[in-house]
Amino acid sequence: GVRGWRRYWLRGERGEDEPEDLLGWGRERRSVIGIDVTNIAGVLTERGDLEGARAAEREGLPLVKESDYAWGWMDHLALRTALARKISNAARLAGFADSTFAAKDTSRQPNEARARDRLQALLREKLCPDELERLLAEGAKMSEDEACRLALEE
Q1: Rounded to an integer, what distance in angstroms lies between the CA atom of residue 70 and that of residue 121?
Q2: pTM of the prediction?
Q3: CB atoms within 10 A of CB 116
Q4: How far separated are the first and last CA of the chain, in Å rounded?
Q5: 86: left (phi over 0), alpha (psi -120 to 50) or beta
Q6: Distance CA 139, CA 104 (A)
């Protein structure tokens, strides 16, 4: 591990692990930190702390994006966006999330489903059906980079 390798290096010896092996461990750890921080953003969104959620998103989203897993948090990002009264952008993010979950043939975890259900209620309340359908379709065409930029917009 990292500590063992460092101990050998400090003594000028060669450890069991190569530095290149440890780089992979470090990248994996960054992803885990990103997952934890974006999960915290979801909790803060549910609790109504939109400012705190946004700060956590800015920190965690780039880390999960490195692992090509930013799509997994789009429901929470979209909900926070809707609660911040950016309804059109929230609908686009929902469209991106829906299309990505479908393309990956995976289902939402309970917390994601809860966020998506709450988001859907807000979108139906604020948008007419045609407008909602149009915005969801726009979001379905976005790349992950575009969705992340939109989610972190001021």
Answers
A1: 23
A2: 0.82
A3: 20
A4: 40
A5: beta
A6: 16
